[in-house]
């Protein structure tokens, strides 16, 4: 059969042509099929690199992304990618973000960012760092993590070329601070149970690995002074420790006393509607410390007289429970000044009272002065005696 085919020269030429060009056609066809993939000029791509150096191994690296470029108004092609939200993993470091160079020390893109590409292929490299996280420890606020990159995190640095200091990096603590009702922020501690801060806003803090610091809180102690004068007026003084959560702090009862028309101020009581005075102006109230709150009565000094020297009472101590203390002003109705009866008749009503008061405080003293002057004048006259002959 083959012999008969090759005897026909037209069929022979066809078979020869197919044998010669079929392989070339197959290769070209494969290339055409691949032209719709990642390597074709009409499809651009975004490729992710772990950038993990020679001694560490990244994982879960994102798959490449592909995009069909669009032609803008200036006939320039561009492609828009959304950066993968995959969080990379690397032992001893935290993933910070992505950069377009291996040597970058800060990210240019973060997960979820939009990246606009202007070339056929864009490469992103993972940026590794140490992370300082902030635990608000019962407080609230928007305190974001901070990052720093030690020399050991830089791509291509061999482990044997690193010293101990190459694993350290400094973080300048941000100025933002958390808040907590009834407490004062002292700084950041090494543990949630710490009573002393190891760093404060604005200070540099050195870490060698990713670290968490915890907000340290001091309770705010307060003394509420209820003026108890039927107006509902109050004044508040507060204090807090500057060193530890249980440190001491003092509140001194003001020396200036409140006033109330028709009443004398006696002191301060711990319960309302009592005449028993518990504390006086100048007393020192100490909160916190081992006693978890105490009151120290300050020294009381009496005024010196011509016959008696200054006397000072010894201080006494009383403990207080709780974070706040309410004190009530103790008042005593003032004794009215007696007014002599002048016999002056006045009309009824408020105006009569005013006239009577004017007469008492003006007429009476004036009359006394006139009487005194007349007596003095009468007794000062000289009398001449002459002898009759």
Tags for this model:
elongated; 3 helices; 7-stranded mixed beta sheet; 389 residues; 4-stranded mixed beta sheet; disordered C terminus; alpha+beta; 3 domains
User: What is the approximate shape?
Assistant: elongated
Q: Radius of gyration from the CA trace?
A: 47 Å
How much of the polypeptide forms β-strand, as a percent range?
25-35%
Helical proportion? 10-25%
Low-pLDDT stretches are 24-40, 54-58, 291-315, 385-389
What is the N-to-C succession of helices and strands?
Answer: HHEEEEEEEEEEEEEEEEEEEEH
Mean pLDDT over the residues: 76
Structural class computed from helices and strand pairing: alpha+beta
What does this protein structure show overall?
With 389 residues, the chain is of the alpha+beta class. It folds into 3 domains: 2-34, no CATH class; 44-219, no CATH class; 221-302 and 312-333, no CATH class. The protein has helices at residues 2-7, 9-34, 350-380; strands at residues 44-49, 65-67, 70-71, 77-82, 94-99, 114-117, 121-135, 146-148, 169-172, 183-189, 204-207, 211-219, 221-226, 234-239, 249-252, 263-269, 284-287, 294-296, 317-319, 324-333. A hairpin with a 7-residue loop joins strand 13 and strand 14. The longest helix is centred in the last third of the chain and has 31 residues, at 350-380.
